[in-house]
Design brief:
single chain, alpha/beta, Rossmann fold, Dihydrodipicolinate Reductase, domain 2, 2 domains, nine-stranded mixed β-sheet, six-stranded parallel β-sheet, 13 helices, globular
């Protein structure tokens, strides 16, 4: 098969992703990035021969097979639709849609273009410990899976201005408005992957702890975490966070079946713990074992060069293989799983604002479910036209960063212009 020609929308995170496609023998032929000062970074990452655009509509006229959407977190769906209309495959960073109406539009546009492959570029399921948990679950030795939980806990030093300003370079940036339920694919993705289950109902509760005054900060979110619970299509239950910032940094996954349980051990890298009830364990197996799993993959050398614990390479590989096979990627990477995750994020946030009120998760394969949300454009973000959010972004509707913190943020931004 001819080498895939790949374009990348977003010259920051997109360059990290691009390197994995290059390792997969794809050609990065075009990049769209509207910040001209980022163009040198693009060429350093993928080579001087790449064509750089600042206009997306001109970018997708370039001769290419697939596009990586690595633009702003909540603005992927409209650009994915433009790609579908050009017959271009889509590899979309998380989340798939920023509003419920966009989820409807995304799915309906996709179904009009059956030749395109769409994949949610969620990399955490492919981390080594999650792959090992999935392997054990698939043996059936844990019995029927009843419960799974995951945490994506990513606190940051409020005084590390260089890191903060690299990611948040204007006051209206989406990271200053993202609710704690929204950035959830790094936790929900893994439990969907290891169990095969799909959420059908969600409830959520937030934990607020406003930052102290006097730090460089322009975030309008006072919550540190959201505890999200879903009832799933197979009768199991998930408990997980969005992007949390409590305690020490960790990523964790745990599954519990009728016969045993398995989890990675917080703070211990990829090490896992596998436990069985003594009377139900497989013959010859210990009731409890701790071990570092292997990759069991012929491309381990390339995996080890990749970001996010190898997940970036493995996720990109699934996309390339799906294109080569002319089939959609498996659960939970397909477009319907992707829009389920977005629905959990969006409706979970509404639940948290309503004291944990449960919300049913729509299935956008079903027209009646689509019709319910066809005009639902509530958003906690400032839109591309500068319009204010249409729903509050945290537990306290009146919360905003103190004036001294905003002034420090604005002064730092101005100094870097």
């Amino acid at each position: 098969m001819a080498r895939l020609k790949v374009g990348v929308f977003g010259g920051s995170r997109g360059m990290d992703i691009a390197k994995n496609f290059m390792m997969l023998n794809c050609d990065i032929v075009a990049v769209c990035e509207n910040r001209e000062k980022q163009h040198s970074v693009v060429k350093d990452a993928v080579g001087d021969d790449v064509t750089i655009y600042t206009d997306f509509d001109k970018f997708i006229e370039h001769d290419m097979d697939a596009v990586v959407l690595a633009n702003f977190f909540h603005q992927h769906a409209p650009y994915a639709i433009k790609c579908f209309e050009k017959g271009i495959h889509v590899y979309s960073e998380c989340i798939s849609n920023g509003t419920m109406a966009e989820g409807v539009e995304l799915v309906e546009a996709f179904e009009k273009h059956p030749g395109v492959v769409y994949m949610l570029a969620e990399n955490y399921p492919q981390m080594k410990f999650n792959r090992e948990i999935r392997r054990i679950v698939d043996t059936g030795s844990l019995g029927k899976i009843l419960f799974a939980e995951a945490e994506y806990n990513h606190p940051g030093n409020v005084d590390n201005k260089d890191t903060k300003l690299r990611y948040i370079y204007k006051k209206e940036h989406w990271r200053n408005y993202v609710p704690r339920t929204y950035y959830l694919t790094h936790s929900l993705g893994p439990v969907m992957y290891v169990t095969g289950a799909t959420p059908k109902r969600v409830t959520a509760f937030n934990m607020a702890a406003p930052k102290e005054a006097g730090h460089i900060d322009a975030s309008f979110v006072c919550d540190r975490a959201s505890n999200i619970t879903t009832m799933n299509d197979d009768g199991s239950v998930f408990r997980f966070t969005g992007c949390a910032t409590f305690g020490a940094h960790h990523n964790s996954t745990r599954v519990c079946g009728t016969k045993g349980s398995m989890e990675n051990i917080r703070g211990m890298g990829d090490q896992v713990m596998l436990r069985y009830n003594g009377w139900e364990k497989p013959e010859g197996a210990p009731t409890k074992s701790f071990y570092d799993p292997n990759w069991n993959d012929d491309q381990e050398a390339l995996i080890m060069k990749s970001g996010h614990g190898g997940g970036d390479f493995l996720t990109a590989r699934i996309f390339v293989e799906s294109i080569e096979k002319k089939e959609q990627p498996p659960h939970p990477y397909d477009i319907y799983s992707a829009t389920v995750m977005s629905s959990v994020a969006i409706l979970g946030h509404r639940s948290s604002l309503e004291g944990g009120m449960p919300y049913d998760i729509p299935d956008f394969k079903i027209k009646e479910d689509r019709d319910k949300y066809r005009e639902d454009r509530l958003s906690p973000f400032i839109d591309k036209y500068g319009d204010k959010p249409s729903i509050q972004c945290c537990s306290d509707a009146d919360y905003k960063p103190d004036a001294s913190s905003i002034k420090l943020f604005e002064d730092e931004i101005e100094s870097k212009q």
